[in-house]
Design a protein that fits this description.
It is a single chain. By secondary structure, the protein is mainly α. It has two domains: about 50 residues, no CATH class; about 55 residues, no CATH class. It has three helices and two strands, in the order αααββ. It has a two-stranded antiparallel sheet. Strand 1 and strand 2 form a beta hairpin. The longest helix is centred in the N-terminal third of the chain and has 38 residues.
Length: about 130
C-alpha cells in the first residue's frame, strides 16, 4: 500500500483489537444461537428432551442389565509376569512386543524395587 509508515503502523496495530472484538462477538453469538435458535431449527424442546434422557426413555436411555459405562477418567491394570521369556528385558523391548495393540509400561517392579519409565516425546508414559 502506498501510505505513510505511521498510518501503516496504526493499521497493523489495529489487527489484534479487531481480532479480539470479532472473537468476542462470535463466541457470544454461538452461546446465544445454539440453545435458542438451534433447537427451533431441529424442531425439539430442549427441556423435554433433557427430561426424557434423564428418565431413560430417550435414545441411549435404559441401559441393558449388567451393562457398565465405559466412561472412566483412567484405567489401571496390573499383571504379574511369570513367563521366563519376558524376564530381563528392557521396557522398550517389552513395549515393542504387542503387534496388534499398543501397551504402555509405566512401572516395573522387581525384587521389591520400582523401576519407573521416563517420559519420551513419542511415549506419554505418565
Amino acid at each position: 500500500m502506498a501510505i505513510a509508515d505511521a498510518e501503516r503502523t496504526a493499521l497493523v496495530n489495529n489487527i489484534p483489537v479487531a481480532y479480539a472484538v470479532t472473537y468476542l462477538v462470535g463466541t457470544a453469538t454461538l452461546v446465544w444461537f445454539i440453545p435458542t435458535i438451534g433447537p427451533k431449527l431441529m424442531g425439539i424442546n430442549l427441556r423435554e428432551e433433557a427430561e426424557r434422557m434423564r428418565s431413560g426413555t430417550g435414545p441411549g436411555g435404559g441401559a441393558m442389565e449388567g451393562a457398565v459405562s465405559a466412561a472412566r477418567p483412567f484405567d489401571v491394570r496390573a499383571y504379574r509376569v511369570t513367563n521366563q521369556k519376558l524376564f530381563n528385558k528392557t521396557i522398550a523391548e517389552l513395549e515393542a512386543l504387542p503387534k496388534d495393540l499398543r501397551a504402555f509400561i509405566v512401572r516395573v517392579r522387581s525384587d521389591g524395587r520400582d523401576h519407573r519409565t521416563r517420559s519420551r516425546p513419542d511415549h506419554p508414559g505418565k
